[in-house]
Write a structure and sequence with these properties.
Four copies of one chain form a homotetramer. Helix content of chain A is 33%, strand content 29%. Chain A is of the alpha/beta class. Chain A has two domains: 81 residues, Alpha-Beta Plaits (2-Layer Sandwich); 194 residues, Formyl transferase, N-terminal domain (Rossmann fold). In chain A, strand 5, helix 3 and strand 6 form a beta-alpha-beta unit. Chain A starts with 7 loop residues before the first strand and ends with a strand.
């Protein structure tokens, strides 16, 4: 959003690094009387790759929304061999939350949602347990219980996908959802499923990371939010944070301290995604300012 | 420096916010075949002010170093009402260090200097005590002893200024220098004197901040690097950092723990200044990426 | 609580430093077959003052709950000139929350309460506005609306006190309550009112600290939880934390980023208080492990 | 050291958890007129193991230094089945530093040593390269050059051991020493070799951790100090710390940012070891206050 809360257009770009890209992109906006409200760029010198996010006010812009895509593709993106996307700030994405039994991340997201911290719609919560149905009801969100066993997993994922379609979901947040999604499920939502893993990845991937951290005797624990790929806990990292611990911290205390990091890190990742500030390239993220 | 270690030109700008500035500036560079290696911009919506730093390779650039200033002034800066500066990355600034008796910041700067972390020349260390003369000698830097008393201060500051001129000093770092510089001295080096204050400013300005922090019972201590102005400890902040403490920490322990923060925060500020990444506006800093 | 969830006794002590205190206290427990589950001590060498917290299992202890106080007072506390308190871990304290319009701290406390992170009873929320009545209802907590104006303040504080009595409240948490309590009110709850202030105290005490932080151009913001005294924002600090910011952060962004620190810092202080891990001496806190 | 800088005795203990240990130990000191200046204890409930460090002034103590060990062993340690050690604060340990080519950790240790931050003697620096000979000379420390190749390693380790014996070295600090010590070498100095590893262990053990961190796209880097065991980078962790990074940070920038964490983390570990505040049990450390 711009300072006047006028809707904005957001373009995210990556392309081979080359002379003059910023000039071309900003000139395109300027020629059409667009007022840039945010611009961030990055050059990866090892990959020789250029990345950019630019956001400008639609108010007074010389092209209609429909004209922007073909005009930019023709004038800038095609000649520069860009991969790019266009969004508008008043397109509010629709998000589903998957949970199991732990409530802390769900409560955190709900509280932010209800107080309008997140520019998103959350029509549905899906869970393999009934434990958090009451929380969903508290906040007036639909709750769909889809239990999962090894035998039923394939069929139940189909039910999950049906729910996502029914609610026209754009992206999914796994808020301590304790099931591994199948590769097929993940393939349908590339860079659209955000997980919170309760360790400082790549340390302690997989199950029971706090137990593993305790056994190793680390002095700092962490949490990692990442886009889900078919490789477990190996997708592109969006954000991480840590907490200092000591020998006094038993496993239950690690779990407790970890909750506060998990919910902060997950919410930051969700916010960056909603605000179209993330870009994935070669399994790493660019997080624009 | 660019990826190839070719010299670069660096322009820092601020001006009234207006449409198309990034396009104009980048177009100016692009038209002259310049390759941008870094670009960072910021709009302060409250002040309606635009800030930008752009760095491009001089190799292959269509203007000579001498031509850049008048060309940019005429084509861009004057029409946009810009305050701006131009530097070249191979202009190595000359830095003087002022110290008193504490060695930790001096050692830290010396170690970075000797291992080429800092793109700077340090020809001289000035002190009101002889305590650190040996450190200067260890690192082969000239040491000038200028003792100061209330009576001699005015004259001795004149001697200090003579030394700065003699060594052609561009900027001064106060590495726990325990004398207050006069307003006249400071006026001669605007945004060119960097101090480290051993508290989390604006808390505990003035003398003995660790004693004050202990008395107040804070749970976190800090350090602040800032440009020196005629207002004591009130100049524009460049960087800050903190350390967690507890009731176990006596004043000597605070002093000890604080040293590690002080030296890190001071060195980060010095590096940002050397790399022309700082910009001061209305007693606040923009620190470019 | 002990490892077996047997109830424990907790003694907090301060007294003039002297030889043999730990031996005396632990011998008292040992002679009565008590099993120590936690012990933390601190000597303030400047004040020549000794502080200690010890917790032991009541199961199998040779004295009844009623006998502990007189026995310890006679054998240990009186001869050593101790100020001390005795609590039992199964005495669940009763806490009231005061709020105004901002919901983030309230939601955070509610979520922790509902998921049993806090060993406390929260029977009532008091507010000078109706904004958060729905949140109270969501979590099934009584909500009492007591509007306050300059004229009505004295009377309304009396109503607040009546509510505290009616609900048998042991301590009060000000979760971004935007009214200043009178000295009389505070005097009735010494070291029993916990506030969260949205700055890194003592910097930016008083109103609008994020505005002040922005004006000063700090690079780090903070939050401070403290016991309320009659001096505004000057009571003993329980916990603090910080977040790094940059020139990009406008005042609304500081307010937003600050919320996450505020709720974490407040909840840590509340938990320390509930677990009887705090001790106040000379306007500073000892926070036991 | 005590408040009066009188020498102190330090006992570190671990034993099966049992009722009354603190009482016994403190009573032993008290009966002999000892004044406790620090006491820290920990119970590991999972391992049912008790840990304790206690420090008391020797001035006025009823036993001579020589009498303490047999008296404590007989009265306390044997009946409680303790593993324990006794040290005196005026026994200054002798430390050797191993380096290769990078100077930052060496400079940091030297600066702390020269300014008396560390209660230690450093008579010798050993290196497989000559690069840092000048730094040793700057600080007046003996420098022994022992080059190492795959073929000569066995013999050269023998030379290293000879140097350690000649200089009567108590413990060794690997300050970015880029050779792996043999299991035989390590076996001779159990819990007496401290390494700094330039990652957040257990992530990125082994060679080139910053390259690995960059490839994985982490948002935080770290450093880990640990006691060296025969398992590479798997010894008990003494301390860790981290720094936040972004997509802007190339590998050289990670290396640069990492240096500041490495030197802080290494120096904290060295200080804890010198002050006899570490205790290793089952490949994890207790770090006493």
């Amino acid at each position: 959003m711009s300072r006047n809360n006028f809707p904005t257009a957001i373009i995210r770009i990556h392309c081979p690094d080359q002379r003059g890209i910023v000039a071309r992109v900003t000139d395109f906006i300027d020629r059409n009387q667009g007022n840039v409200v945010a611009l961030d760029q990055h050059t990866d010198k090892e990959d020789n790759r250029f990345f950019m996010r630019v956001e400008w006010e639609l108010e007074g812009f010389g092209l209609t929304r429909e004209q922007i895509e073909p005009a930019f593709q023709h004038a800038i993106a095609a000649p520069c061999n860009m991969a790019w996307s266009l969004n508008f700030s008043d397109q509010i994405p629709r998000m589903a939350i998957f949970v199991s039994k732990m409530s802390h991340c769900l409560y955190d997201l709900m509280a932010r949602y209800q107080s309008n911290e997140l520019n998103v719609q959350i029509p549905v919560i899906i869970s393999n347990h009934k434990s958090l149905e009451d929380v969903a009801r508290q906040f007036g969100i639909d709750f769909v219980h889809i239990p999962i066993t090894a035998e039923t997993k394939k069929d139940q994922e189909k039910r999950q996908l049906d729910v996502l379609k029914e609610y026209r979901i754009d992206f999914v947040v796994l808020a301590r959802y304790m099931q591994v999604l199948s590769a097929e499920f993940v393939a349908g939502y590339p860079e659209k499923i955000i997980n919170i893993h309760h360790s400082f990845l790549p340390a302690f991937a997989g199950a029971k990371p706090y137990h593993a951290a305790h056994a190793r005797g680390v002095k700092i624990i962490g949490a990692t939010s990442h886009y889900v790929t078919s490789d477990l806990d190996a997708g592109p990292i969006i954000d991480q944070d840590i907490a200092r611990i000591s020998h006094h911290d038993s496993i239950p205390m690690l779990i407790q301290k970890g909750k506060d990091i998990e919910k902060i890190v997950l919410s930051r990742a969700v916010k960056a995604h909603i605000d179209r500030k993330t870009l994935v390239y070669h399994n790493r993220t660019i997080i624009f300012d």
